[in-house]
Design the sequence.
């Protein structure tokens, strides 16, 4: 609101418009570009708002977009999983959760990643999905993981193969084709600072 009023004043002061109605017409006609974040922070979720935005994003992707779940995709695994998030930053400040994944230990040393999702508008922006996978595996590796697996939706197998995952078997889960895949831990050195995570730049 403050920015809007400053912009209005600047436009009026500089003679682009002489009245509020002229300003409003001006505003409609000028094709201002939509702001695109240039920097993202991928980290373990540590704050309540980060977790609630991550769950909302999962509902948007897995309930609305993919129709896999009716209203909510949360399950018992969430009670023992660590959420990981990708935050879009504006002027260096975290602004919005635009990606998420969760990890959990299923048996001693055996970890799984699941519910990987990137907001539709932020896919192919700056390797968000790849960096979420990276932090998922490297942070588990730092806390005793010897095997890291995921049930990957089959359309995403090429993404995981590029990231040094191998296929263990094909399977059908909730009526959809999946592949059980395993990360090559040699390519994912332990990350000891998952709450700070990784900063990445947009490629655009
Ligand atoms: C799968 C998903 C998480 C990928 O996120 P993303 O942020 O777009 O992926 P990235 O930008 O990190 O991709 C890294 C690279 O892999 C490529 N890639 C991404 N998804 C791919 C796919 N399904 N097949 C092949 N290549 C893929 C990207 O083009 C990019 O290539 P580049 O390095 O040449 O630019 C995202 O598409 C998504 O949320 N999909 C809907 C939910 C979903 O399918 N979840 C996964 C369940 S297993």
Sequence:
């Amino acid at each position: 609101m403050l920015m809007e009023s400053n912009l209005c004043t600047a436009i009026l002061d500089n003679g682009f418009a002489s009245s509020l109605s002229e300003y409003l017409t001006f505003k409609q006609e000028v094709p201002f570009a939509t702001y695109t974040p240039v920097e993202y922070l991928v980290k373990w979720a540590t704050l309540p708002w980060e977790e609630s935005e991550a769950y909302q994003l999962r509902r948007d992707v897995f309930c609305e977009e993919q129709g896999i779940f009716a209203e909510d995709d949360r399950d018992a695994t969430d009670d023992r999983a660590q959420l990981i998030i990708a935050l879009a930053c504006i002027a260096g400040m975290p602004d919005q959760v635009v990606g998420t994944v969760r990890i959990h230990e299923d048996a001693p040393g055996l970890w799984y990643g699941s519910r990987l999702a990137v907001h539709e508008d932020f896919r192919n922006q700056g390797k968000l999905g790849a960096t979420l996978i990276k932090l998922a595996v490297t942070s588990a590796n730092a806390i005793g993981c010897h095997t890291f697996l995921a049930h990957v939706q089959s359309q995403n197998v090429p993404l995981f193969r590029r990231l040094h995952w191998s296929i263990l078997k094909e399977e059908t889960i909730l009526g959809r084709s999946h592949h059980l895949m395993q990360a090559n831990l040699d390519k994912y050195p332990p990350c000891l600072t998952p709450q700070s995570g990784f900063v990445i730049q947009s490629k655009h």
Notes: Residues 61, 116-118, 123-124, 127-130, 152-153, 155-156, 158-159 surround coenzyme A (CB under 6 Å). Strands lie at 39-44, 82-90, 93-107, 110-118, 147-153, 165-173, 176-183, 198-201. The chain has two domains: 1-32, 39-201. Residues 1-32 form one domain.
